[in-house]
Amino acid sequence: RFLPKLLSATAPPSLGGSQHLPRLHPWGGCSEARPPPAPPPPPPASPPLPLPPPAAV
Fold first, then answer.
1. Exposed, middle or buried, 25 (CB in 10 Å: 0-12/13-18/19+)?
2. End-to-end C-alpha distance for the chain, whole angstroms
3. Burial of 21 by CB count in 10 Å (0-12 exposed, 13-18 middle, 19+ buried)?
4. Considering the entire predicted model, what is its pTM?
5. Any idea what DSSP says for residue 57?
6. Domain map of the chain by residue range?
7. What would the pLDDT profile of 8-56 be if each residue is shown by its tens digit?
8. What are residue 37's phi and psi, to 5 degrees?
């Protein structure tokens, strides 16, 4: 409703594009007016820590 151009370009509301793509176009749905918060970025892949030397028993 707010951006009919994007909705029509991706999938017209007549086909239920707003319902099929609630994540890509949250503003298309009447219930969700604003987009959900973006998920936190994944932590950087850290190199495996070296194993400590075996304790001499």
1. buried
2. 73
3. middle
4. 0.15
5. -
6. 1-34
7. 445 444 544 444 444 454 445 444 445 555 666 666 666 666 666 666 6
8. -65, 140
